Each structure stands twice: as structure tokens, then as C-alpha cells.
């Protein structure tokens, strides 16, 4: 359904009176042409997620990356940050309309947007914002308020402070007299109910949201749902948005379910502990790199939802992934293995650690083990789970799955290197970023395997699913339409 | 209910002979416009406000057209009759600049970047060393552009003393033209004996022209004249007809003005109720020549001075406020033709007829904001709407379409590119297929 703009053409026949009414209608309602389908207001969006989100209180942020990511996803529906990232990963104003810093980047001043209210009606003021940030940033930061701004001071230079405040738990919240937390975001948290391992959360539209009321009336979040249950729910019309593992995307689409995928935002990689004797020799690590059949991981294990990776950053972020060609060469791998003098098959096996609670990681690990056996490397897998959390043992190599949170090459690479325990140097010029990425790959300390997209299954009613290309969602822009008009899979 | 109608800023005197010719059957009542406003009056004036008027505009096809516009009650400056010859000359200059500059700019950008890459390569290659090279294109650049880049690269390398060989050189260079989501990324891999080095540059994407032509009577051409991450509701280029021109972007909460000569930009905040929802809309009046721009940003119309970059004033358009618009430049709203959209089409917007047609309108696709979109020209016929052109596709949904009726200026489309995530402003033009 399209926007209706005022009907003007028949003015000569219907007379000026009609024209006058049209003109008034044009002014009062929708005298404009926004060509794509006009959003509808109303409805409840049913969303399912794998992770449980015990709390979205920014002060009690989960430490596990997956849980933190889930909490951030839900939290962003309720809270806003001072600044936010646009589709290009560029900082844009949110609750702060401008910001400036001193020459050393030690003192930052964020000027707050006027007229913003929390969902309980409390006006956003600099003292409230300062108090929230002080609790989140900790004692090493001095957060104060001026008449219209929040000032953050620290002893260290923080040139990237706004970028840091645009992600993670740095939400601005208001603590009510009854200790209830409210935000300025598009929705407000109204109800939470737990049924066994599954949590139900209902979010209601924040009518007074400074950025505009969302189109949806409510979001019903079901948390802790297994991937298989989610796939079934979307197939049988019991959910509007579900998370889809890469290996399930094709199968789900074949069942007629709409799917939407981000650009490749996850990297599967092998990360070596080069201090371990078993993998200290770079030739051995190179042999492992040459032995792995990445194409079968991408095409078979991940059902063509992965892209073979020779680089840490996917090409859509860096533009230079072609400089990291991928080769699989078993004879050469065997030669290198022989040259390294290690006889892993007969001596101590290579210890590979992975998170065995992640079915896709487990499947990729199995394939890696098969590939390595083909060149004579015996692998002992270590995917132990303790207390529900994967804990690395003394592993020679880890199979990791890292989500790239930002589309900016420097920020994305910085996050990747940090998670791999690699030092990140200055990442400003393109050559610096390239060199920083090149170093661990050339040294075979990190072996990229595949880049994978983040995917969702969508019901036919879901409209304007315009998620950031690096994953996540923007449910405030989503609306529900009639099922017949939807169709096809989103990019 | 009092009808508020904008008066045309452009003097109707200029168009009067033609207007009289096309509207001679219309019985008009002597107008009572503000003293300094020139406008023609429609019939049935009794239905209108005492000082309401209609505006006459003229299309490229030399057709005059009556269209109702909301009127300004008065002006801050007296309206002067325009000198037709000067205006025509200005229009010619503006069109010349508008058509020519993007092409020249694109060429110079690519060639400059090719020189920059050549400079970086030359810094790595030992002086006097023989070099062989190849170029690969992994980007959307066209073969002609790739050829031009290669030529420039080669010339610049030779200029810097690098000896180029077709084969057998000690140094080989592989130049790859790639892209990421933001820029074009060009790399040069320099291989020398068993070592290699890489140089990179990021090249800003530039505007492109696209057109679709076939046997249909109308050909639509689009010219991208702006691209950026920020959501815009409308965009246009305005010249004062002398030596200054501005790129003006209408944002949900203000107006961005960029001086095209100096590149300096600033934003004027415009209070609006746009944030009451997420479905923002508004449009610019970019047809006039001068140093002011009119804009409609619900629920009000405003005027801004492009030179001083000051908001001159705003007035509400709501009936409750009396409907009187003070000191405003007129802003024409987009209007839709009567009847439902053609099958499979979404929004329809009336346009100034082209190619001798009448009752023409633009239609977009019926998808939502996640789908690519297109525009197509239709004509209302007795049997329904008939297509006059093929669809001109865009790389994403059209988030705003301004058909360019009368005072709005040239038709424009705002598109959200699904590949880059950028918003893009296109100027639409039409030509008649012989």
C-alpha cells in the first residue's frame, strides 16, 4: 500500500472548492510523495532469540560476549546513547546533539538534546545523564553536568571516546524512586515472565520518544528459544522474527520463509597460542592453513551462507580482501609438516579448543579435524563446558567465532585483534590498517576460515526490515503489513 | 474554512502571453492579490479566499498549466518582473553547469586518484627500473573508466621516470580497482624478486548518470547529484543567477546549505513536528533564482537565506492558525492524479507534462523500503493509465519523489541505496523519443 497524496488533477472539473479541500488535505495530512509503501502503525511483533537476557540494566551487564550482545540488542529498544552509529559506522547525534574535546582528548563535552523525556515522563537533564554515565564508566572517569551538557574528564587521552560510547552498555537511564529503570528509547519494558528456560518480555511503544513513536504498538520477545524451535516457529507462523543459524538459512528459505541476512559480519578463525611448543614452528601453522578446505566449510557446513576468508576483515569493510588469497594445498602442507620436524600424529596431538555449545562452531571444528588428519596431524578436541560457559583449556589452537561490531575498518580490526590477543598499533591510514591485518596472518598466528552473515527469518507481515549491514536490528523502523504484499528474501 | 494559497514568486507577467493563450477559455474574476503579487485568478473564485490565486507554470514542452498553490499574503521585498532574456541566459548557464560539472568532476576525481596511486607506486619502484603492470577491476567502474584510469596511471608512472615494459620486467605491479561499502579502494601490489609491497588509496565515489531508453515515447534520465549517509527529504541546487550556487538538503529537522564554490556548509535548524513520527516528509522550492529558498517541513513553510544562512521565518500551514503565510516563498506540494495507481505501482505523483502529452504522472514501485524501486511515466487516459516510458530502476527504495510541478523545480527522487546504505538525490529529466 502506497502513500496517498492529495488528489489534485481533476481540479478543472470538480471546481475550486474541491481543490481547496484537497489543498487543505495536502497540508494537513500527507501532501507529499514518499513513494515506497507507507508504514502502518500498530500491531505486536513477535521476536524470538536464542540467548536469555536476564537484565538490560546497564549497570549489571553480562560478561559473556553472546549475552552482552543480546542484552545490547534488547537494551537498544529501551535506551538511547549519547551518540550512535549510522549505516556507515559514522558517529551521529543521539541524545547528544554535538560534542567537542580539548587538545589532548582528555576532556569531552557532550551537549544534550533539549526536550527529551524518559518513558516515565522525567525530562532528560545533564545531571541524570552524568549520573548514569558515571556509574557505567567507573571511577577513573569524572563525569559532571553543566547547564546543557555532560562533561567527561579522564587522566588519559581518549580520542575514540564517542565511538566507545556509541556501543556496548553506555545507555543513558533514569533510576526512579522505586528503583525502576527507564530509558528514552522507542519502547519501554513493561512485563517480564519466565517459563522454565524461556523468558517472555513485552515492550510497549514509547509514545513520547524524541525520535518519533515507533510504528509497532508492542514487541513480544521470547528469549532462550533454541535455534530449532525458532526455525519451527517461523515456519508455522508462531513468530515474526527469529534468528537463523547460517546452516539453517537455505533450509528455512526452501520452506517458503522470508530470510534477511546482513553482510558477512562473523569471522571463524583458528587462533594459535604461539608460545605453546606444539605450534611454535610457523611452518606447522602454515601447513595447517594449507590443509584446511575452507570451501567445504563455507558451502557444505554453512550451506553457502559463508564466504571463504583469507583476511580478517570482509571485503565489504576493507575493500582489499583480494590481497589475501586463499590456497588449499595438501602436498605443500605435508612438505611443510615434514620440514617442521613435528610428528604430531605419533607424539602429542594438537589440542584444539572450541565452544561446543555452539553447533556451527562444533561442525566447523569437526571439519578442521578431518582436514588436519588428512595431512597427518592428530587433533585432540577440547570443547568442555563448565557451568554453562565454555572455558578454554591449555589449547594449542582455538577455533573462534568473532562478531564484527563496527563497519569502520579500524574499529573492526581493532576489535578482532584484541579478541585474538594481538597488539593493535596505530590504525589510521589505509596502509596501517592493512599492515596490522597482514602481520598475524603472515605469521600464521591467526588463520581466517570463513566470513558468515547474520541471518533472520521474517514473517510475511514484517515490513521495512532495515537492519544495519553489520547485523543487529532496528525494530523501531519495522512495521506490520498484510501478509500478501510481502515476499522474497531480503539481502 | 479559509483556503490559503501560495502566490507564485516568479512573475506571471513573464508567462502571461503564453498563459493567456492556453487559458483563454477560463473566465477569471479580477484578482485581489497583495499589491506586489502577480498571479492569475481561477474561475469559481468565490470558493477561494479573497486573495487566493492560481499560479501559471510552463513546461519544457511549451505548455502552460494552471495549478493551485498556497499563497503568500505579502512579501518582504517587492516582486520585480523578471527580464526574460536574462533569466533564459541564467537558466542556460545553470543547466550547462548542472549537466557538465558532474561529468567533469568524475573524470578529474578518477584521474587524480590514478595519479595518486601512480605516485605511491613510483615511490616504491627503484628509479629507472623496468616495470610491467596489469590492471584488474573488481568494482562497478565501467570499462571506459578503467581504461582511462589505466592510461592516466601509465602516463604518470612514465612521468615519474618509471620505464614500462610489456613483459620481462624485474618489477611487476598488479593494480586492482576494488571497493568497500564506503569508497572505491585501489591497491597496487608491487612484486620485485621475492619481495612484495602493497600501496592503497581510497577513492571517493562520485555521481553517475543513468538513463533508460527504448521505443516508448518518453525516455527518463536520472542524474545523481548528491550522495550521503544522512537521511534527506529533498535536495536541490540553487543559483542566484550571477556567480553563486548552493546545494541545499532538506533534513527532517533542518536545512543543510553548502556553497558550491567554497564547499563550506552549515545547517539551519528548522523546528518541526517531524519527530512526532518516523515517517518524515517535506519538500523544497528550488525553482527560483535568488538567494533564498523556500521549504515545506510539516507543519510549516519556511524561508531561508542562502547567503547569510539564516532562517528568515516560518509559518504554520494548518488551518487552525488561519492559513496565512507571511513572507514566504511559495512551495508547491506534490499532488497525485485522480484514480488508483496503475497495477503494481505504488505512489503516483502528477508531473508537468512532457512530449506534448497531458495528464502525466510519475509512478513508483509498490515495494517497501527494503526493495529496489523504479519510476515510470504514465498518462491518464479514458481507459485508464497508460505507460509512456519504461521503468528507470534505482539501487534502492525511493524515499521521496518530487515531481517538479511548477515552482518546485526539476523532478527529483531521493533513493536509499541498498548496497551502500547511502541516500542519493537524483535529478530526473525527460526526453521525447522520435
**Envelope shape of chain A:** globular
Would you count the extended β strands of chain B for me?
Answer: 27
Low-pLDDT runs of 5+ residues of chain A are 1-35, 484-491
User: What is the ordering of alpha helices and beta strands of chain B?
Assistant: HEEEHEHEEEEEEEEEEEEEEEEEEEEEEE
Q: In angstroms, what is the radius of gyration of chain B? A: 26 Å
Proportion of residues in β-strands of chain A: 15-25%
Features:
heterodimer, A: 491 residues, alpha+beta, 7-stranded mixed sheet, 28% helix, globular, B: 434 residues, 5-stranded antiparallel sheet, 27 strands, 37% strand, disordered N terminus
Task: Describe the structure concisely.
Chain A has 491 residues and is an alpha+beta fold. Chain A has helices at residues 11-14, 16-28, 65-78, 126-137, 161-165, 227-235, 246-254, 282-291, 294-301, 315-318, 330-340, 359-374, 409-419, 430-442, and strands at residues 44-49, 83-85, 91-93, 96-101, 107-112, 141-145, 149-154, 174-175, 181-182, 187-195, 198-205, 218-223, 241-244, 258-272, 306-308, 350-353, 379-382, 385-386, 389-390, 397-403, 446-458, 462-463, 479-480. In chain A, helix 8 (282-291) packs antiparallel against helix 11.
Write structural notes for this entry.
The complex is a heterodimer of chains A (491) and B (434). With 491 residues, chain A is of the alpha+beta class. In chain A, 28% of the residues lie in helices and 24% in strands. Chain A contains 14 helices and 23 strands. In chain A, strands 13, 14, 15, 16, 17, 20 and 21 form a 7-stranded mixed sheet that branches. In chain A, helix 12 (359-374) links the parallel strand 16 and strand 17. Chain B is α+β, with helices and mostly antiparallel strands. Chain B has a 5-stranded mixed sheet, with helices on one face. In chain B, strands 9-10-27-26-25 form a 5-stranded antiparallel sheet, with no helix packed on it. In chain B, strands 20, 21, 22, 23 and 24 form a 5-stranded antiparallel sheet that branches. The model of chain B is unreliable at 1-89, 91-107, 209-214 and 318-329 (pLDDT under 50). The chains are: A alpha+beta (491), B alpha+beta (434). Chains A and B meet through helix 2, helix 10 and helix 14 of A and strand 2, strand 6, strand 7, strand 8 and strand 20 of B.
Amino acid at each position: 500500500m502506497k502513500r496517498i497524496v492529495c488528489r489534485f488533477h481533476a481540479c478543472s472539473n470538480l471546481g475550486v472548492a474541491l481543490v481547496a479541500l484537497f489543498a487543505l488535505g495536502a497540508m494537513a495530512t500527507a501532501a507529499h510523495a514518499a513513494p515506497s509503501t507507507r508504514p502502518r502503525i500498530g500491531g505486536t511483533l513477535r521476536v524470538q532469540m536464542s540467548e536469555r537476557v536476564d537484565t538490560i540494566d546497564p549497570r549489571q551487564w553480562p560478561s559473556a560476549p553472546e549475552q552482552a550482545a543480546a542484552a545490547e540488542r534488547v537494551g537498544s529498544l529501551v535506551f538511547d546513547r549519547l551518540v550512535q552509529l549510522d549505516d556507515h559506522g559514522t558517529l551521529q547525534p543521539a541524545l547528544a546533539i554535538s560534542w567537542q574535546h580539548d587538545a589532548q582528548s582528555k576532556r569531552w563535552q557532550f551537549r544534550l538534546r533539549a526536550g527529551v523525556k524518559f518513558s516515565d515522563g522525567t525530562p532528560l537533564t545533564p545531571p541524570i545523564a552524568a549520573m548514569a554515565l558515571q556509574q557505567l564508566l567507573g571511577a577513573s572517569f569524572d563525569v559532571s553536568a553543566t547547564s546543557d551538557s555532560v562533561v567527561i574528564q579522564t587522566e588519559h587521552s581518549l580520542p575514540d571516546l564517542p565511538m566507545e560510547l556509541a556501543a556496548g552498555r553506555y545507555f543513558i537511564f533514569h533510576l526512579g524512586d522505586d528503583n525502576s529503570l527507564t530509558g528514552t528509547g522507542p519502547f519501554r519494558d513493561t512485563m517480564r515472565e519466565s517459563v522454565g528456560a524461556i523468558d517472555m518480555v513485552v515492550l510497549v511503544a514509547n509514545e513520547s520518544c524524541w525520535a518519533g513513536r515507533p510504528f509497532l504498538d508492542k514487541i513480544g520477545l521470547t528469549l532462550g528459544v533454541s535455534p530449532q524451535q525458532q526455525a519451527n516457529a517461523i515456519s508455522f507462523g508462531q513468530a515474526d522474527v527469529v534468528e537463523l543459524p547460517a546452516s539453517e538459512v537455505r533450509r528455512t528459505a526452501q520452506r517458503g520463509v522470508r530470510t534477511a541476512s546482513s553482510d558477512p559480519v562473523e569471522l571463524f578463525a583458528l587462533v594459535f597460542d604461539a608460545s605453546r611448543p606444539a605450534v611454535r614452528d610457523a611452518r606447522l601453522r602454515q601447513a595447517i592453513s594449507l590443509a584446511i578446505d575452507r570451501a567445504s566449510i563455507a558451502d557444505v557446513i554453512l550451506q553457502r551462507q559463508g564466504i571463504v576468508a583469507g583476511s580478517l576483515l570482509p571485503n565489504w569493510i576493507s575493500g582489499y580482501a583480494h590481497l589475501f588469497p586463499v590456497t588449499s594445498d595438501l602436498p605443500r602442507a605435508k612438505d611443510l609438516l615434514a620440514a617442521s620436524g613435528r610428528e604430531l600424529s605419533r607424539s602429542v596431538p594438537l589440542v584444539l579448543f572450541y565452544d561446543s555449545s555452539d553447533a556451527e562452531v562444533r561442525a566447523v571444528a569437526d571439519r578442521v579435524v578431518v582436514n588436519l588428519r588428512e595431512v597427518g596431524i592428530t587433533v585432540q578436541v577440547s570443547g568442555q563446558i563448565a557451568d554453562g560457559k565454555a572455558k578454554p583449556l591449555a589449547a594449542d589452537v582455538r577455533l573462534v567465532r568473532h562478531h564484527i561490531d563496527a563497519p569502520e575498518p579500524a574499529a573492526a580490526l581493532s576489535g578482532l585483534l584484541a579478541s585474538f590477543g594481538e597488539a593493535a598499533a596505530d590504525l589510521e591510514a589505509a596502509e596501517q590498517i592493512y599492515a596490522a591485518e597482514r602481520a598475524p596472518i603472515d605469521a600464521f598466528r591467526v588463520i581466517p576460515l570463513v566470513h558468515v552473515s547474520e541471518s533472520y527469518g521474517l514473517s510475511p507481515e514484517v515490513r521495512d526490515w532495515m537492519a544495519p549491514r553489520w547485523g543487529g536490528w532496528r525494530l523501531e523502523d519495522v512495521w506490520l503489513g498484510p501478509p500478501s504484499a510481502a515476499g522474497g528474501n531480503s539481502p | 474554512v479559509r483556503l490559503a494559497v501560495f502566490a507564485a514568486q516568479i512573475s506571471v507577467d513573464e508567462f502571461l502571453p503564453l498563459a493567456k493563450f492556453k487559458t483563454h477559455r477560463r473566465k477569471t474574476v479580477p484578482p485581489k492579490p497583495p499589491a506586489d503579487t502577480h498571479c492569475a485568478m481561477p474561475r469559481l473564485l468565490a470558493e477561494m479566499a479573497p486573495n487566493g490565486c492560481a499560479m501559471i507554470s510552463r513546461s519544457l514542452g511549451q505548455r502552460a498549466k494552471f495549478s493551485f498553490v498556497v499563497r503568500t499574503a505579502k512579501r518582504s521585498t517587492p516582486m520585480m518582473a523578471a527580464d526574460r532574456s536574462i533569466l533564459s541566459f541564467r537558466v542556460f548557464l545553470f543547466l550547462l553547469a548542472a549537466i557538465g560539472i558532474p561529468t567533469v568532476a568524475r573524470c578529474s576525481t578518477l584521474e587524480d586518484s590514478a595519479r595518486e596511486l601512480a605516485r605511491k607506486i613510483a615511490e616504491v619502484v627503484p628509479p629507472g627500473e623496468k616495470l610491467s603492470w596489469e590492471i584488474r577491476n573488481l568494482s562497478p567502474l565501467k570499462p571506459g573508466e578503467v581504461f582511462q584510469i589505466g592510461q592516466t596511471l601509465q602516463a604518470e608512472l612514465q612521468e615519474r621516470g618509471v620505464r614500462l615494459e610489456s613483459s620481462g620486467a624485474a618489477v611487476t605491479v598488479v593494480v586492482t580497482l576494488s571497493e568497500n561499502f564506503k569508497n572505491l579502494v585501489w591497491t597496487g601490489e608491487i612484486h620485485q624478486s621475492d619481495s612484495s609491497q602493497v600501496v592503497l588509496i581510497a577513492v571517493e565515489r562520485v555521481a553517475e548518470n543513468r538513463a533508460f531508453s527504448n521505443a516508448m515515447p518518453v525516455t527518463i534520465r536520472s542524474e545523481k547529484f548528491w550522495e550521503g549517509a544522512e537521511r534527506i527529504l529533498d535536495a536541490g541546487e540553487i543559483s542566484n543567477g550571477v556567480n553563486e550556487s548552493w546545494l541545499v538538503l532538506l533534513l527532517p529537522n533542518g536545512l543543510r546549505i553548502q556553497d558550491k564554490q567554497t564547499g563550506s556548509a552549515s545547517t539551519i535548524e528548522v523546528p518541526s513536528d517531524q519527530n512526532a513520527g518516523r515517517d518524515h516528509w517535506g519538500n523544497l522550492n528550488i525553482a527560483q533564482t535568488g538567494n533564498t529558498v523556500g521549504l515545506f517541513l510539516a507543519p510549516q513553510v519556511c524561508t531561508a537565506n542562502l547567503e547569510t544562512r539564516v532562517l528568515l521565518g516560518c509559518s504554520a500551514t494548518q488551518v487552525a492558525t488561519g492559513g496565512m503565510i507571511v513572507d514566504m516563498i511559495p512551495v508547491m506540494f506534490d499532488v497525485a492524479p485522480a484514480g488508483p495507481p496503475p497495477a503494481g505501482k505504488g505512489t503516483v505523483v502528477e508531473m508537468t507534462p512532457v512530449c506534448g502529452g497531458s495528464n502525466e504522472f510519475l509512478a513508483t514501485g509498490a515495494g517497501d523500503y527494503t526493495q529496489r524501486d523504479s519510476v515510470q511515466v504514465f498518462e491518464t487516459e479514458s481507459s485508464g493509465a497508460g505507460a509512456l516510458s519504461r521503468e528507470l530502476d534505482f539501487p534502492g527504495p525511493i524515499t521521496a519523489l518530487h515531481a517538479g510541478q511548477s515552482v518546485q523545480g526539476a523532478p527529483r527522487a531521493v533513493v536509499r541505496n541498498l548496497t551502500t546504505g547511502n541516500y542519493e538525490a537524483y535529478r530526473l529529466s525527460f526526453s521525447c523519443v522520435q
